Amino acid sequence: MLVLGIESSCDETGVALYHSERGLLAHRLHSQIAMHTEYGGVVPELASRDHIRRVLPLTESCLEEAGTALADVDAIAYTQGPGLAGALLVGASVANALGFALQKPVIGVHHLEGHLLSPLLAEPRPAFPFVALLVSGGHTQLMAVRGIGDYELLGETVDDAAGEAFDKSAKLLDLGYPGGPALSKLAEQGDPKRFKLPRPMLHSGDLEFSFSGLKTAVLNLVQQQSPLDDATRADICAAFQEAIVEVLTKKCLAALKQTGMQRLVIAGGVGANKQLRAGLDDAAAKRRYQVFYPPLALCTDNGAMIAYAGAMRLKYAQHDYSYGAKPRWALASLPAA
């Protein structure tokens, strides 16, 4: 089965073609970072309009790379939620219009399920069951995953997610938008031991997270050290990143111990962080756990993860071409495949 996947939940337009036997055939991604940088954050109306401009040319490019025609597509998957309502509706309307024109089934995919399953597009692939750490945009969650759709929420952030803390702290340090990647890069030049930052909920005894206080600690440090020189800015970045990595690593290990599982999957944009990968790999190796990541190109939002998740959920495809967006949608509410 050949599935066309469309991702348009926020500020990246992703399109991909996934074949159930041949794997990922093609994927294209357009980022809106340059457009939103002027405003210091995502402007929803501009995001929606840009998705409209990009989605069909990206689809044509994928079809050309895969050497196939639109008529050969067996099903169309799109991100139904969560995300920005207007942006989601662009992908939903295009997917259902194509489905109606081709008389092919259409599948609404949960954005976080796409991230959760994205490591299955890499080699080696994790086998079920596993613990998954979802660190994507506004989400930081630990899930017990026993199969497609069999998800148990173990813990999540009670305020700012890790990705939000990265971006907000980067803004406090005048690192531009989006600040998370810039903060991580600058942290490589800093001394993480110069400043001591808190590790929120590290010893809470549960699998919940909280990163709002860490962001506030960065604000206080910036005010104390102002005006910041380059070395101080790098040292704050290094201390911040080390705090995030320590909390995420300890909570992941606690989740593995609690569930008795041996495999850990990391998914989402923060999963591309070098220090997080190194910390998790080292901690897991000492305890004989296995850690799996999506390919770096598939850590951010992308159409490949939506096409794959859609292929896994073909039996839930709709044929009446009625659609809607789900800006808020609990991952644990999904049915088992």
Automatic annotation (TrEMBL):
GO molecular function, one term: iron ion binding
GO CC annotations on file: cytoplasm
Amino acids binding Fe cation: H111, H115, D301
Name of the protein in question: tRNA N6-adenosine threonylcarbamoyltransferase
Alphabetized Pfam families for the sequence: TsaD
SUPFAM superfamilies attached to this UniProt entry: Actin-like ATPase domain
Origin species: Chitiniphilus eburneus
Keyword terms of this UniProt record: Acyltransferase, Cytoplasm, Iron, Metal-binding, Transferase, tRNA processing
Cofactor(s) this protein cannot do without: Fe(2+)
The keyword DNA damage belongs to this UniProt entry's keyword annotation: no
Reactions mediated catalytically: L-threonylcarbamoyladenylate + adenosine(37) in tRNA = N(6)-L-threonylcarbamoyladenosine(37) in tRNA + AMP + H(+)
The keyword Transferase is annotated on this UniProt entry: yes
Task of the protein: Required for the formation of a threonylcarbamoyl group on adenosine at position 37 (t(6)A37) in tRNAs that read codons beginning with adenine. Is involved in the transfer of the threonylcarbamoyl moiety of threonylcarbamoyl-AMP (TC-AMP) to the N6 group of A37, together with TsaE and TsaB. TsaD likely plays a direct catalytic role in this reaction.
EC number: 2.3.1.234
Organism taxonomic ancestry: Bacteria, Pseudomonadati, Pseudomonadota, Betaproteobacteria, Neisseriales
Superkingdom of origin organism: Bacteria
